[in-house]
């Protein structure tokens, strides 16, 4: 099967690489010439475990190629996936300009029946809007051939994206067309054979499933953060609470770890977009609204924790371990570390930071922030007045605390992911503060 992917970012590149791995002939297209040039030279522009090997293997077997030509991509494929960004706009709604640009580009170059599959996260009703847009362009071009629009939301998690794509918990397909559904079944044949649930529904339901899922997970995080923030004010221990809650099968143990708040390219914008979708429908989704509010405040709560622990921030050297919004990614979009750093700098602190993968992106996206980027944990902790563990990278799980103690100016360890047991850190001579536990 010949496939085109429009938009070669985190989702597009993983989708393209994985579909090629499953035996399809894939062209990944992007308007970013630099990105495509690098990919043509074998350079993978993002850090995602397993992706580089996948791309290398499938490029050499000629099942995967890259282009900036929409004409070439459309001519190549029967099924065209759209995986462009849908960033947040000022009014919190999803900006659909990249999606509609891609749709117009596809419709202007179609010469026969195509299945147009939307993988970008888009508000309910977008699939129908896409249909109308394509019909109108084909009419202008006096073309009469058919096409189908499918919603196939993506649930991959950065850091485990390849695995998530190849073996997802479920595949959701929204379409009104039997022909398009058959194409989708062929594309996901391997997953169907593995008995991975294949949910078929209409366009609107598929679009809503994505927002409902992300907002639910985000709500779980904000919920446990609220409980943790209350634990900080009493003698309760959130780690025991999370564990005991998670033992209830109806609740489940995942997404019950407190921390500096959710970040990344999805949860923050998708929760806000869902509130916006509700408001446009004349309904205010109060739970999601509160989820957003709690999350927006959580980096400030973490800043306050650091501030209160140190008493005064002026000229204090703070070590930030981890900038990425979560481990195993270089993505720093909406990363809570950035907000915490901004507040610390504003209050006179000096920042030294280390992240195994995300420092280049941090330098590029926040050149204004005066951060001393370090090459490893030890140099980041030298002369530090406070080590703040923000992202739970594997590299930070087994720190040599005695060595670090000898290196720092003041032994304070603030663990925003509750990675360490307080007693263990205290035994090494540090003052320990976690989230929601003494
Ligand atoms: P991204 O910003 O990493 O990549 C988007 C790519 O689209 C960019 O390379 C950009 O140059 C390209 N692009 C924009 N307009 C184009 C056009 N007209 N033609 C061709 N290329 C174009 O975005 P992403 O993180 O991959 O997210 C893409 C979509 O998938 C979003 O809607 C997002 O919400 C959703 N999503 C993301 C994730 C994730 O973890 N990143 C997971 C699930 C769903």
Describe this structure in words.
With 438 residues, the chain is of the alpha/beta class. The protein folds into two domains: 2-201, NAD(P)-binding Rossmann-like Domain (Rossmann fold); 218-433, 3-Layer(aba) Sandwich (Rossmann fold). Helices cover 45% and strands 14% of the residues. The protein contains 18 helices and 14 strands. The chain has helices spanning 10-21, 33-40, 51-60, 70-76, 97-109, 126-140, 161-166, 178-187, 189-193, 203-231, 238-246, 267-280, 286-310, 336-346, 359-365, 377-381, 401-407, 422-427, and strands at residues 2-6, 25-29, 64-67, 79-82, 114-118, 147-151, 171-174, 198-201, 317-321, 350-354, 371-373, 386-389, 412-415, 431-433. The strands form three sheets. A six-stranded parallel sheet has the order 3-2-1-4-5-6, with helices on both faces. Strands 11-10-9-12-13-14 form a six-stranded parallel sheet. A two-stranded parallel sheet has the order 7-8. Helix 5 (97-109) packs parallel to helix 6. The model has no long low-confidence stretch (mean pLDDT 97). Nicotinamide-adenine-dinucleotide binds at residues 6-12, 29-32, 35, 83-86, 98, 101-102, 105, 120-121, 154, 156, 158, 265-266.
Provide the descriptors you would attach to this structure in a database record:
six-stranded parallel sheet; 438 residues; Rossmann fold; 45% helix; binds nicotinamide-adenine-dinucleotide; single chain; alpha/beta
């Amino acid at each position: 099967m010949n496939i085109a992917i429009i938009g070669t970012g985190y989702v597009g590149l993983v989708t393209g690489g994985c579909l090629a791995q499953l035996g399809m002939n894939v062209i990944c297209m992007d308007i970013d010439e630099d990105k495509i040039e690098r990919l043509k030279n074998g350079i993978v522009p993002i850090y995602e475990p397993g992706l580089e090997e996948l791309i290398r293997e499938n490029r050499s077997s000629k099942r995967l190629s890259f282009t900036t030509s929409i004409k070439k991509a459309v001519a190549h494929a029967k099924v065209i996936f759209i995986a462009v960004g849908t960033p947040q706009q000022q009014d919190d709604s999803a900006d659909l300009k990249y999606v509609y640009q891609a749709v117009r580009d596809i419709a202007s170059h179609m010469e026969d029946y195509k299945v147009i599959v939307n993988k970008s996260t888009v508000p309910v009703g977008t699939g129908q809007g896409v249909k109308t847009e394509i019909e109108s362009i084909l009419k202008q071009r006096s073309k009469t051939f058919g096409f189908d629009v499918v919603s196939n939301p993506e649930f991959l998690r950065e850091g485990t994206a390849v695995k998530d794509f190849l073996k997802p918990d479920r595949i959701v397909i929204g379409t009104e067309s039997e022909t398009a559904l058959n194409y989708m079944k062929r594309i996901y044949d391997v997953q169907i054979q593995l008995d991975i649930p294949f949910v078929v529904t209409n366009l609107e339901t598929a679009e809503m499933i994505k927002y409902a899922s992300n907002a639910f997970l985000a709500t779980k995080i904000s919920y446990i953060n609220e409980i943790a923030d209350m634990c900080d004010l009493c003698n309760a221990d959130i780690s025991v609470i999370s564990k005991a809650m998670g033992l209830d099968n109806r609740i489940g143990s995942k997404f019950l770890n407190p921390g500096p708040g959710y970040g990344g390219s999805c949860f923050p914008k998708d929760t806000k977009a869902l509130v916006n979708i509700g408001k446009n429908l004349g309904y205010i989704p109060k739970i999601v609204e509160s989820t957003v509010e709690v999350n927006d405040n959580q980096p400030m709560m973490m800043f306050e924790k650091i501030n209160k622990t140190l008493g005064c921030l002026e000229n204090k050297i703070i070590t930030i371990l981890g900038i990425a919004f979560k481990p195993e990614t270089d993505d720093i979009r909406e990363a809570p570390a950035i907000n915490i750093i901004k507040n610390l700098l504003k209050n006179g602190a000096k920042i030294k930071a280390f992240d195994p993968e995300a420092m280049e992106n941090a330098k590029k996206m926040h050149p204004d922030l005066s951060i001393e980027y370090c090459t490893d944990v030890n140099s980041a902790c030298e002369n530090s007045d406070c080590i703040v563990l923000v992202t739970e990278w594997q590299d930070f799980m087994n720190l040599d605390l005695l060595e670090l103690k000898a290196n720092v100016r003041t032994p304070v360890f603030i663990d925003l992911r509750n990675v360490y047991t307080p007693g263990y850190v205290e035994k090494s001579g540090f003052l320990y503060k976690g989230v929601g536990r003494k």
